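in:
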């Protein structure tokens, strides 16, 4: 599937034209073309890249999944790799969608590795672009709209995970076994999601910072404040992700400490009751010997031994209760 747009002098002039007409429109002065491809055939995409003069390494990275977020510069264009993220319906898993962007002086080519990125929302953001951003919606403005959408998705994901971690804090000191197991399971899943999110957002600092270099010529001066705003959001998401990983680590350690304390309390109670039960067991076992003992064969011997059992058991119970062992 392919989508195309043509801007002439800052105005959307044509949409949905054939891919074969891209090179013809690029020859026009003041023309900017956007071409979007979703899961393109490598052979067809190589033909498009050859027609537009794109480097073979950039074409290879654009069609092969698993690239890290990066910005590679070539003689006549730049290659950018990034990820859109969203939260799965289970509220703790992270879903990523890879996108490759080829940037030339008057063309923006986006290659989506899957249909996970809603490109219609990106197009809607382009249409709502502020008029003060640039005298004409060139490649820099289109790229800003795309990056702004991606980074906003990163921000929404990290905020969602922050809310989920706060919910875990409330379950942390629950007494029910189901709550304990829920904390352990969700902590593990959140930790995996935060690791994946960190791999996506951390390299974006270098990507956005490199795009703003004056020698690349990608970002015109009127757009610099907008790119700085995107860069600020990237820094905030990165720092937030790191702090959430630390919070989750502390939560897991606290959960383990709580479980250990509960186990210690159980062991203290079991030991205390075992000590109380050991008193009558010892006394009755002693008097169960087949030898004469004080009070042997008399009712007074039974009464004395019973009294000793009761007194010692009560004393042990009171002592353990004062020490909060029972």
């Amino acid at each position: 599937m392919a989508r195309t747009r043509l801007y002439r002098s800052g105005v959307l002039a044509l949409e949905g034209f054939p891919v074969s007409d891209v090179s013809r429109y690029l020859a026009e002065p003041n023309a900017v073309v956007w071409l979007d491809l979703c899961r393109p055939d490598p052979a067809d995409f190589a033909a498009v890249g050859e027609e537009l003069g794109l480097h073979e390494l950039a074409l290879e990275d654009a069609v092969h999944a698993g690239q890290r977020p990066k910005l590679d510069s070539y003689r006549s264009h730049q290659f950018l790799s990034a990820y859109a993220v969203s939260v799965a319906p289970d509220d703790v898993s992270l879903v990523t969608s890879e996108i490759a962007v080829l940037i030339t002086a008057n063309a923006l080519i986006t290659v989506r590795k899957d249909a996970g990125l809603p490109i219609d929302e990106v197009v809607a953001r382009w249409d709502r672009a502020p008029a003060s951003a640039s005298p004409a919606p060139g490649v820099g403005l289109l790229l800003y709209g795309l990056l702004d959408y991606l980074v906003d998705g990163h921000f929404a994901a990290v905020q969602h995970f922050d809310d989920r971690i706060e919910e875990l804090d409330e379950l942390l000191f629950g007494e029910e076994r189901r709550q304990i197991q829920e904390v352990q399971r969700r902590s593990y899943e959140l930790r995996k999601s935060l690791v994946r999110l960190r791999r996506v957002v951390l390299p974006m600092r270098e990507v956005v910072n490199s795009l703003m270099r004056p020698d690349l010529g990608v970002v015109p001066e009127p757009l610099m404040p907008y790119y700085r705003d995107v860069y600020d959001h990237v820094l905030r998401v990165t720092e937030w992700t790191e702090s959430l990983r630390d919070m989750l680590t502390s939560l897991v350690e606290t959960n383990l400490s709580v479980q250990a304390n509960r186990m210690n309390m159980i062991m203290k109670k079991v030991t205390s009751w075992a000590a109380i039960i050991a008193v009558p067991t010892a006394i009755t076992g002693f008097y169960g010997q087949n030898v004469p003992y004080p009070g042997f064969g008399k009712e007074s011997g039974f009464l004395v031994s019973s009294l000793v059992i009761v007194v010692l058991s009560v004393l042990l119970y009171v002592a353990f209760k004062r020490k909060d062992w029972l």
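note: Residues 224-287 form the longest helix (64 residues).
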